[in-house]
Amino acid sequence: MSFHFYGNTKALQVLQQSIQTGHLSHAYLFYGPAGVGKQALAKQFAQAIFCQGENIPCGHCIPCQKMLKNIHPDFQELGGQNTKNSFHVKEVRAIRSDAYIRPNDGEAKVYLLNGVDNMSKEAANSLLKVLEEPPDNVVFLLTCPSRSAVLPTLVSRCVPIEIFPVTQPECIQALQELSPDTTLEEITRASQLCDGIIGKGLELLSDPEEIKASQTAFQILESLSKGNELAVVVALSPLENSRPFTKKVLLFLSNLLRLALQAKIKKISILGLDDFIQKQSIQSILKMADTVETCIGMLEQNANLKLCVTWLSANLPYSI
Ligand SMILES: [Zn+2]
């Protein structure tokens, strides 16, 4: 059995057991933060349900090929608009009538419903009715950010599959495989800022705005170890033009300082941050983190952007 997924051993075991024992449930709820891979894993599970090969999902048999080309007649994917109430009742009703028609190719039909937390109340109730009396040979795969985001009665009808962020080494491995043209340095930096969420890491490597913001955060961090005020002022200079950009950079910086602090206290190494951690004391990292947090708070309260950046450069401690 070979799902191609990172970390999340427990979730993979539950799904593998379902396939191997042939005891498929009528519904599975994949939940976890955005970008963690819920949809990707749910699709692989659908492929595994249809697969006729040996090392399920084999990727080579006809059903696997149809899934990989998005042309399997017994698989439907809906939702995923990411705005509240964007998943309408008419879509669920269409599934309800379709679910009672026998499968075309194989023995099962699979419906992947992305973002069920965005279902209107009517849509959620309509789905609940199907799950209360599910047709034979039909499997529903639901995704949402957390169990509390959907009706408890819906949750209780599903096998819960929680997807967690991965460790930094797992994240680096994933980003290397998924973004092969990127340098190890860029990947390491993305892995420090994405909190183990691979989708977020990929965004950090491909979205120009994210790339610029993360580079600026790292430049500020490096400037704090140079021991002169001018270096800090220069590193902070890209912040004076845009409030959303500044906030993004400061959130990244806050994230990096939190990681550095944890590493310093636990005396562990963090790839790419070790030089900074070695040069700084716990007290100075704490003061930096506190200053950055205060500045984020000032920005959120609509303080003048230039004043915020000036305040930041005057209050960030820098040392040799
Ligand atoms: Zn196959």
Describe this protein's structure.
Helix content is 54%, strand content 8%. With 320 residues, it is α/β, with parallel strands linked by helices. It has 2 domains: 9-162, 3-Layer(aba) Sandwich (Rossmann fold), CATH 3.40.50; 207-315. A 5-stranded parallel β-sheet has the order 2-3-4-1-5, with helices on both faces. Helix 9 (198-206) crosses helix 10 (208-223) and helix 12 runs antiparallel to helix 14 (282-300).
Which terms summarize this structure?
single chain; 320 residues; alpha/beta; Rossmann fold; 2 domains; five-stranded parallel sheet; 54% helix; 8% strand; binds zinc ion
Structural class: alpha/beta
What is the architecture of the largest domain at the second tier of CATH? 3-Layer(aba) Sandwich
Largest sheet: 5 strands, parallel
Task: Output the radius of gyration.
Answer: 24 Å
Shape: elongated
Number of domains: 2
Beta-strand level of the residues, as a percent range? 5-15%
How do the strands of the widest beta sheet line up side by side?
A: 2-3-4-1-5
End-to-end span in angstroms?
A: 53 Å
Task: Determine the number of helices (DSSP H or I, runs of at least 4 residues).
Answer: 15
How many beta-strand elements?
A: 5
Distinct ligands: zinc ion
Average predicted local confidence, pLDDT: 92
Order of helices and strands: HEHHEHEHEHEHHHHHHHHH
Spans of at least 5 consecutive residues with low confidence: none
- CATH class category of the largest domain: Alpha Beta
